[in-house]
Amino acid sequence: KHIDQKGESGQTFHGMMDWVDLAQPPIVIIENVSGAPWEIKVKMFEERGYAATFLRIDTKEYYIPQTRKRGYLFAIKAQTKNKVVDRPARWTAAVKSLKRPASAALDDFMLPNDDPRVLRGRARLTAESSAGEGEGRTRTVDWTKCETNHQQARSMEELGDKRPLTNWSDSGNTAMPSFGWNEWTNAQVHRIHDLMDINALRLAKLMIDCSHKTMVWNLSQNVHRDTMGV
């Protein structure tokens, strides 16, 4: 919704601006989604006697191996405008000077496979999947709806009909590689099984072995969407 409509974001922002009018803080920093109406917000601060600017940043440009785009607004109260007119530009330069593309792999932020917390989490998720929570195997209708799309993707992309990663069978059993989480995989529906194998085959065409590369797959997406981020 627009900032002046009575949505939750608009109400929160206007409530914050009411506080700014009352408290007159010397510096204000706001964080919000990248697509927020930042130009309008900057203008509203300027109308209140602040020098302001905004900047859109992405976490993967600041050390963290994750794409998360956010916007930040910086505003400083102008006692005498000439004294602070360059502060927003200096703030922007300072933030940009902190840039460093993420070089640490995702694995560096993850616990070892044998960590007790990982083992407890895996046991809980396996139990939930087996019980039919989330996208459990009892929801076979999902595979019926998607099977044609999967067959079409395999045919058009010349992937063949093999199941090299999960080795799933029509009975529902899977046989992941020794390092894989077979209990969780076995509890999923065939749509997910087949999507994992299609992803493995797509990568194989690019001469990439998915079993030797850390990747994050969005298995909730349709086979025709980008489920691998490559």
From TrEMBL:
Coiled coil: none annotated. InterPro entries: C5_MeTfrase, SAM-dependent_MTases_sf. Keywords: Methyltransferase, Transferase. This is Uncharacterized protein. It comes from the Eukaryota. The keyword Ribosomal protein does not apply. It comes from Phaeodactylum tricornutum. GO terms for biological process: methylation.
